[in-house]
Amino acid sequence: MKNVIFALFAFFCFSKIFCVDWNEITIKKNGDIFAGADCEFSIDFPNEMPADVRVTLPTLPEDVRLVSQKRFVVSDDVFGRRTQIRFVLTFLRAGTFFLNPILAEVGDEKNEIDFGEIEVLEDLSKIVPEIFVKIDDEATCGKSARLCVFARCASQILHFSYKLSKDSLLKEKKRFFSDDVLPFSNDEILLAEFDWTPLVSGYCALPEFFLDAMTFGGEKCSISFSREKIFVRAENQKIDTKSNDSVFENAFGEAFSFSNLDEKNQTDAISIETVQKIASLRSEERHAFFGGEARKNRRELEKSLEIFGKDEPSEKNARLFLICGGAIFVLAVLFFVARKKKIGAFFSAFSLFFLAAFLFENYRVHSSCGIFAGGKIFLIPESNGEGEAILKSGERVFLKKRAGEWIYIQGNEGGGWVLQNAVVPIR
Description:
Layout: H1 2-18, E1 27-29, E2 33-34, E3 38-46, E4 53-56, E5 64-76, E6 80-91, E7 95-98, E8 102-106, E9 109-113, E10 117-121, E11 130-135, E12 145-152, E13 156-163, E14 168-175, E15 188-198, E16 202-205, E17 208-214, E18 220-225, E19 229-232, H2 272-286, H3 292-304, H4 315-337, H5 341-365, E20 369-372, E21 377-378, E22 387-388, E23 396-403, E24 406-411, E25 414-419, E26 423-426
Parallel strand pairs: 2-10
Antiparallel strand pairs: 1-3, 3-6, 4-8, 5-6, 7-10, 8-9, 11-12, 12-15, 13-17, 14-15, 16-19, 17-18, 20-23, 20-26, 21-22, 23-24, 24-25
Helix pairs in contact: 2-3, 4-5
């Protein structure tokens, strides 16, 4: 009986020594996998001779190619002697792949080895660096917040710069990057840290940041972070969460009141009814041929008020210039077909004149303008800031931008911030 037990024990130990431990045999990949690039996989078989190991790859999808498959005998102090199967695959697109398992044979033993989930990244030549910002604190008008600038997917940072927005302050604290060449990573790269102080409430433009960097594909590129806005709450005021995608959306929703004007200039300001009349006549002027009767009436009204402004552009004039230019161009083509090149060239140049007139008139028509009702104009959009009356009541002004209840206007003698109800729009 003892001999039987000893024999079973010996057989058990012998089988443990010489049987393959399949739990330790896995497929390893060499680094990240990119679409269109060769990726090497390997399988190690400890204490096995190459002649005893056979590996059969599964049928691969159409967008996966087998480049090569080789076997090696590898030996080192850590893992000892082993047979290593190396095979190289190319994935033709980015995405997640689930390949069928590999069939491995060691002697008389067989087992399937699973690839697991394979994540293939975009082709290196198509990966474009990006730049973005993070603000740690809530943006509050007049209070500084920590603003950090990051980059991603750049192999080397060449140059970094920034441009301050009109309605905020920016103080650089520290730069963190170097010009060293970086290995591929999708991690964030901290470029610089700033103290950013918005000077307006409402939707405020963030500073612009510019970056020259090398891609992992070896090309130089220039990227920027610009024209982005963030909501800034007024100090000691509730945050208005209502969205406002348009710069001038609801900008003229409130009726004008002389309480918004500087007391010194109330006597010089014309009445709001007159301001509205001028704006109405100019709006009619925009929708009539060469201003129509509205232009004549508006000129007389402004002359009586000693206001001398430019005439309004006309939508109909712009269309007329385009039609005339098109007709003359067709005529020029007909002359060219008839082999009258000199006449055709003359009419071609004439058509370009009308095209230029159309572009100029169309640009003016789509400019945002209004009539200023009068009062102080401020350097920053705050009523307790410094301001002066540099524009005359009733003057035509350009509407440049909006910040909360404030609008930046530009007139003949300068520009600045005014409350939104101090301007009547020309539509």
